């Protein structure tokens, strides 16, 4: 039961962060969003740092689950066009609906992690099905320095998502095609 309550509060904290930004993330705001009695959030997460750590941990869980589900639904990338299709799908997921809300929270947490090594450690890019799919695609094409190229491609993709989150609109397919072409060169 405590785990369910912690998940409920972490999800509510994600919503508060997406709606109100880092300054709006308070124990009281999470209590209101979760529709629990006042003081509930602080009973589970005594400090703001503990609340933020729980939020970031939950965010990573949700992101990893999303990437795993996408990998299970898509066939392995055989062509550059299929890789671009997968990247297009991911950018749409990250820029609309709940994915957009998680993206807003993710970038706010990334900025906070600059000053907080514990958060930074949680947010460090980790192995996941999406990263493995890109790595396999590049390996099969004989691309040199696969690890760095995978990291660079995904970091650039993340930057494009951030740009569209701030400026609005979709990531242009041509931009994704250019990233893939540059990675394969």
TrEMBL record:
InterPro entries, sorted: Homeodomain-like_sf, HTH_TetR, Tet_transcr_reg_TetR-rel_C_sf, TetR_C_31
Record organism: Streptomyces ferrugineus
Alphabetical UniProt keywords: DNA-binding
One GO MF term: DNA binding
The protein, known as: TetR family transcriptional regulator C-terminal domain-containing protein
Pfam families associated with the record: TetR_C_31 (PF17940), TetR_N (PF00440)
UniProt key word Repressor: no
Limits of the HTH tetR-type domain: 3-63
Source organism superkingdom: Bacteria
Keyword DNA-binding attached: yes
DNA-binding span(s): 26-45
